UniProtKB/TrEMBL annotation:
It comes from the Bacteria. One of its GO terms (biological process) is polyketide metabolic process. It holds the Pfam family SnoaL. SUPFAM superfamilies: NTF2-like. It comes from Streptomyces dangxiongensis. Signal peptide: none annotated. PANTHER family: ESTER CYCLASE (PTHR38436:SF1), POLYKETIDE CYCLASE SNOAL-LIKE DOMAIN (PTHR38436). This is Ester cyclase.
Length: 147
């Protein structure tokens, strides 16, 4: 029975750490996110391996293009050593994005994050999947009638 309680405690800790990283995003504090990464973390963006350097560059680029971005966690689930988050992102287009000059347009996109933690509470594996289509349509970078 105590093994189950320990597993539940680790799951709750991991959920708290995941929410702490979201709070860091909402403060635009990338170091508040990366401090939770294990030195040998593996990142996958839409199933493609990504280095930590490339991940940080993408995060910095996102903040440059959408400097007021806000993540709203709609659900969070923990199982074993993994935490999954379903997130709605809202932001204003305040910097260049895909060659489009800043427009101030309010945009929304959606993402799923899966984080795997080690026993020390560090993220050792990170997966993300994005649905940028609503944002691309709003910015005129995708046809409005695309589903």
């Amino acid at each position: 029975m105590s093994a189950t309680l320990t597993e539940k405690s680790a799951q709750e800790r991991n959920k708290e750490l995941a929410l702490s990283m979201v709070a860091s995003w909402n403060r635009w504090d990338l170091q508040g996110i990366t401090k939770h990464w294990a030195p040998d973390i593996q990142h996958f963006s839409e199933d493609r391996p990504v280095s930590s350097k490339a991940m940080v560059r993408a995060m910095e680029g996102g903040l440059a293009a959408f400097p007021d971005l806000h993540l709203d966690v709609k659900s969070i689930v923990a199982e074993a050593d993994r935490v999954c988050l379903r997130i709605t992102v809202t932001a204003s287009h305040g910097g260049e994005f895909l060659g489009k000059a800043p427009s101030g347009t309010k945009v929304t996109w959606y993402m799923l994050e899966e984080l795997r933690f080690n026993d020390a509470g560090q993220v050792i594996e990170h997966h993300d999947v994005f649905n940028y289509l609503p944002m691309l349509k709003k910015l005129g970078l995708a046809p409005a009638d695309v589903l």
